[in-house]
TrEMBL record:
Its EC number is 3.6.5.4. It comes from Flavobacterium pygoscelis. This is Signal recognition particle protein. Residues 268-281 form the SRP54-type proteins GTP-binding domain. Composed of three domains: the N-terminal N domain, which is responsible for interactions with the ribosome, the central G domain, which binds GTP, and the C-terminal M domain, which binds the RNA and the signal sequence of the RNC. One of its GO terms (biological process) is SRP-dependent cotranslational protein targeting to membrane. Its main location: cytoplasm.
Length: 295
């Protein structure tokens, strides 16, 4: 992951490491290289520009050139700033509800159903919770079936009403079922479309309003680059979601989505998906991601 960006930055910092004495020109050249690397990783132009401008200002403010190891200080500045850009601290998940209701949103194919299973498995095995998975896709019977396969594989019950065409009712009934049967987390998997459309947005907005989830999570395929940012913005405008799940980070993907989405919608990235298996889930650590990007 992020080889591209990491390689580029390695090269950029190499310029600095090679010099005993660093000049303002070196710093400017390196930051130009950092900016190019961010652009190559699909980070939006303005975000990349603002980022390097900020690092440059800090470098000047801290008098980088007069310190003993200016290269290292600049690397640290870039790393700190990149960490900050991706959210700074780890964003937890709010499990305060009784039951806690978690609504999954996102386009079809983003990895919602897979992630719903991963999250249920994570809460079951790591947080000692009793989760219930809810199939709220009323359009594709295969989607309901897929959730059953996922639920079976991790030993988590799935709630569905195949004959009911009202997702609001299904979700509400599922919460009642959870309360009556001792489930303390309800994960509602919703219908996605291949692209944003009004009907889908209206439907998920209705479900959101009716069940008032503690956590509304937006799932997005990290491989979709700038499109990921636009989709995130649309969903956030309608749902004011609580966090982002970045899936498919195991693929040949660039790191730009993590940076851009956080900057544009200003919501934390909470988890990442790193494979198709149920245990391929990681809490998102901004600092680790920054270190990984920088190599
Ligand atoms: P949904 O339509 O949003 O529910 O998406 P699915 O959960 O069905 O996922 C779409 C495809 O992406 C499936 O083939 C999944 O196995 C795959 N997938 C989901 N998450 C990941 C991930 O983190 N890494 C990889 N490599 N594949 C994933």
């Amino acid at each position: 992951m992020f080889d591209n960006l990491s390689d580029k930055l390695d090269k950029a910092f190499h310029i600095l490491k090679g010099h005993g004495k660093i000049t303002e020109v070196n710093v400017a050249e390196t930051l130009k290289e950092v900016r190019r690397a961010l652009l190559d990783a699909d980070v939006n132009f303005k975000i990349a520009k603002d980022f390097t401008t900020k690092v440059k200002e800090k470098a000047i403010g801290q008098d980088v050139l007069t310190t003993l190891q200016p290269g290292q200080l600049l690397v640290k500045l870039v790393k700190d700033e990149l960490t900050e850009l991706m959210g700074g601290d780890v964003a937890g998940i709010n499990l305060s509800g009784n039951p806690t209701v978690i609504l999954m949103s996102g386009l079809q194919g983003s990895g919602k159903t897979t992630f719903s299973g991963k999250l249920a498995n994570y809460l079951l095995t790591k947080k000692n919770k009793k989760p219930l998975l809810v199939a709220c896709d009323i359009y594709r019977p295969a989607a309901i079936q897929q959730l059953y396969v996922v639920g079976d594989s991790i030993g988590v019950e799935v709630y569905s009403e195949p004959e009911n065409k009202n997702p609001v009712e299904i979700a509400q009934n599922a919460i009642k079922h959870a309360k009556a049967n001792g489930f303390n987390v309800v994960i509602v998997d919703t219908a996605g479309r291949l692209a944003v459309d009004e009907e889908m947005m209206n439907e998920i907005e209705r479900v959101h309003k009716a069940i008032q989830p503690q956590e509304t999570l937006f799932v997005v395929d990290a491989m979709t680059g700038q499109d990921a940012v636009n989709t995130a913005k649309t969903f956030n405008d309608r749902l004011n979601f609580d966090g982002v799940i970045l899936t498919k980070l195991d693929g040949d993907t660039r790191g730009g989505a993590a940076i851009s989405i956080k900057t544009v919608v200003n919501k934390p990235i909470k988890f990442v998906g790193t494979g198709e298996k149920m245990d391929a889930i990681d809490v998102f650590y901004p600092i680790r991601m920054a270190e990984r990007i920088l190599g």
